[in-house]
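Good morning C.,

I know you're traveling, so I'll keep this short. The sequence:
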Amino acid sequence: MRETPTGTPVGVDDPYEHAGVCDHLTDDGRCRFALDRAGHDPEFTAARRAADYECVAADDDRAFRDCPHYRSTTDGRECVRCGLEAVRIAHEASRPLLEEHHLSYGGDGTPDSEAGEGEPNHEITVALCRWCHAKIHRSFARIDDDVEPDPEAFAAREERRAKEQAELDFTTARERRDGEEE
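The tokens, ready to paste straight into the viewer:
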């Protein structure tokens, strides 16, 4: 199983099995990295320009892992392990239920840096609830385990949903005023 630079497991053997499409891929199959950041990698940009900015992985016999700028980051809507959904309360500084979890690390311990083996190590992240995230790093739990949300996670989500519903309650000014007079 892959590990972080500090030696804790990340919960997968091959991060690419859990990666999605590249964050730089446009709806029409072009590479946004080459379009928007031409100065960051002139050689790459020139190659993409010559191919009408077509994505490196658009060719059927190539994969996203072949692209030096591939990045797949999470949308953070639900835990990929247990399915717990995110519930965020606006204007509240409470810790989120879901956290970003890196499946790959570069040779220097940072995501999306050179792995040192001659090939880039891409930034690949998934969303995990805080409880699954702790289990992945503290044990041999895997991302693809078939598990239910932790009871504490479920309780925290339901508490937030109750707050969310309470904020949606509507009382007219008259009802608020009449309540103050009593």
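Safe travels,
E.
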